Protein 1
Amino acid sequence: MHPYPQFRLIRLDAMAAVGSWVSLLAFIIGVGLSAFSIVEVEVSFVLFPFLAFFFFALLHFSASFLHRCPKCARHPTVQGFTSVHDSAKSDRGLEGWGRVVWDVFRNRPFRCIHCGEEYVARNAA
Ligand SMILES: [Zn+2]
């Protein structure tokens, strides 16, 4: 297990991705509540998560291209249409770039989805 050299960038990347997931969920809940008129929903309860989602998604998208795996020089949170490395596969439900994001967010070791190298996203010292 190696320290990830650009650990601040991958942590920012992971925080932004989780932020986009949470705001997307809040947006879906807000739309659902207002569509079925379960409760009276203020416009800001739907608009704010919608804008937050775009902010976090754009931040995640930008940050994900700013750091590279030192071994394979590819982006661990950019999957594209390539298959995930065998050792980076998980049987815990989440797989691929989402697994990397979730592991980094929880401050756990993660594996590069392209080469399978294991890292920790924190300072080596
Ligand atoms: Zn790699």
Protein 2
Amino acid sequence: MKVICLHHKDIQLEPTMIKFHNSRFGNSQYVCARCSRIREIGSGRIKVLKGTYGFINNGTKDIFFHFKYLNNSFQPFINAEVLFEVAFLEDGIEAINIREFKSGKKKIFKGLLKKDFSNNFSNNAIVNLEN
Ligand SMILES: [Zn+2]
């Protein structure tokens, strides 16, 4: 899968990020060689839907998501195969930038960052090292 860093629009660059790690949550982590930002991307199936939220099972964990982080006009349904990005929050993780994953198609994960969590993640990582 090709994952794009979204932080170089000002110089019209879309650098491909490098996969470097499988996270303990069962997702893949990618790093940008230009800015060192990290994105964690996962795939799985929608397992639970309730009102305005649900859970995606990625084979390791059930990951919470809110409908406001569905990409474009994707209508979620049980067993839908999805790609998503992981947002790191104070009290856990959440799936954002969720899109339907059509197997057979070349996967490029660009994502509209409705909220920029990637800076957050980098900052958290630095704080943890200092502790
Ligand atoms: Zn970058």
